[in-house]
Design brief:
Distance between the termini: 85 Å
Structural class: alpha/beta
Largest sheet: 7 strands, parallel
Number of strands: 19
Strand content: 15-25%
Shape: globular
Number of helices: 13
Length: 469
Amino acid sequence: MKFQIALAVFGLACLALANPIARVEEKIYQDLEQSDLINVMVTFRRAETKAAWDRFYSLRLTTREAILETQHAILKDHADVIQADVTALLEKTALAGKRHYLEQLWITTELIVRDVDRETVELLRNHPDVESLVAEQFIQLEETEEGESFDLRDYNNTIQNEWGIVNVQAPAAWARGFNGAGQVIGNIDTGVRATHVLLASRYRGNQPGENHDYNWRAPTGSAAVPSDTNGHGTHCIGTHSGTGGIGVAPGSLFTACRGCATAACSTFDLNGCGNFMACPTNTAGGAAQCARAPHLVSNSWGGGGGQTWYNPILTAWRNAGIAGIFAQGNSGTACNTAGSPADQPLAFGVGSITSTNTLSTFSSVGPGPAGAIKPNVAAPGTSVASASHLADTGLRTLSGTSMACPHAAGAYAVARQSTPGAGVVAIQNRIQSSALAHVSGGRTCAGVPEGSRPNHHVGHGRINVNGAA
């Protein structure tokens, strides 16, 4: 009898080992104490994507459309197989009256499940395919310094080119026919007031034959129409694509994804937006059309340095020739303050300068991981005027590396227009090699003085759009 009991216990132990319970982050239970319904991300035991990536790379595709479509097809097929049983389980709970919203992160084989209760958390925790349940985290947008607000109507609806536009010599590039025409800039931020008079003509969703599908996405809530209750995104988009003297590349078009529903950015939404930029969907998140992907993505957000969680998205973007331009952060000019994802190898980090070409007091400084030069370049970020989300004719002045980043995004669009067929690295090198020396403050980081080039304060220097075109 004792022998039989021992066998039974041994069998249960083996079963537990064969089907271990998933790891659940403590914050999930803390969140459930505060709310009946929360969002979680599911990771899977058989989620290793190396074989899928190897298959993609072995095809040696050469055209942009083929790369975009095939990358998505292979990785999504892998994710579909891995997630099938869990998806079926969640569909059964929906039949039982629970309404969950699923968003597949096909790049990393993860699954975001929105509006789950404690019972569903336990179902997922005990599913043999589930590796872990990850809690939703929020990254605060880098604090920007607010300046003057004004209205175009007070200036007869016309203004002069903003100081940053002049500083980077964009008008000289325009005079040569290079204004970003034919380039699409994706923007991950707080959204956009797409009806603004200086933005409306540049929103791809407003072009003939277009609508908001494939041009706008809001992972939280799946809003069908672009909006921006914060204004950070509208301001940044104005700087890279706005007309009337506020944008570096007024000939470019833009698309937008709301990765930051407020002044905080959900890591789930940022992941969803990263997937959207690699293969755009309709506003509900379906019917993907990868060929609609932008040529670059401007990202005026980030967190603490040394974080690698966004790297799979940066890899997928780079595979398809999509550049990721990122604000370096507003943690000040002390060494080793560079933030992520801007400090990562596949990200193009941007620091901030003033109108006198000195380093802005808030601009984060490198080096990056393994002593990498970060930021890559610097651009105007202090007292930058651009579009306001409060009115279709409104303008506001903000300061931050958030404002510098879209200057560099606009420069990339102009440089890409002038060098058809050039890859991401070639264009970024063009921007770096044409950058101008900046006024040194005499500081040194990692043994590199601010006056040398490149350095850890402004990278290769302040951008020169005309020189890069």
